[in-house]
Write the structure tokens for this entry.
Amino acid sequence: MVSVVHKEHLQLKRLLIVFCGGFLGTLVRYLLSHTIQGILGTGWPYDILLINITGAFVLAFLSTLADATVYVTPERRLFLNVGFLGAYTTFSSLALGDVNLFANQKIWLALLYLAGSLLGGVLAALTGQFWGYKIVQRVRARQSIGVQDQDELLGVHASTQALRDEEQLY
Amino acid sequence: MQMSYLLQLVLIGSAGAFGAVARYVLGHLVASRVGSTFPFGTLIINVSGSFVIGVLFALTARHLLSTTGQLILATGFLGGYTTFSSMSWEGVQLARAGSLRASVLYLGENVVLGLLAASAGIALGW
């Protein structure tokens, strides 16, 4: 009984963390998209391309740190990766923007947008992962540490231990 | 004027926050049901979100939905619901796990099904 209540409390807390991250990520995307369109115009979806590629880079960087339990706790991963970056980047606008380019007979621009997004996203994820590993290696080298010391580094509480396995997904 | 802009920002942000929570919950549900390492959750989320954004786009073009409504639902909710960063990351992870084929298949499915879904949504809403 007690554990059920505890778990529900945890669930609610997790949803709240994702909510807050999602709120901020959506606003940053909206405001940044406006700013970029103001500078470069609305002829081509530079805004979504730039937002998606930067987001893919940071997500890969943080996920690599989180997988190695360096600096990024499960809670921070929920806030930053699932909430903020998940909402900051977007797929639906990419799909709609591309369909509209095709519909307006701008076939090459549509293909360029698609290829640029996919290749850019994969390259950004690989680069982010590379720099993530660099940081992990540096931390590991500075102090050859055991699991308990890692938890000190993270500031992990006992309750977050259980989250770790479940959040490996993200 | 200033106040209504601020209100609009809060509404867009809140809609995106609900979209992010919906993605998180649905992603967990799908992962626990499917029990496979293939990231079906993000695929379902991106394809369904692309379909709905197509419908909203058509409804706005027909003046059945205001541009503010489109901003809140499409830019806000669907923007927070669908995700590009997780898709890229999952694509790279599939390749790292040794299956380049699964990686290409996954990214290709997202793009092809996403574009088809957006087109179908536009057709339905028109």
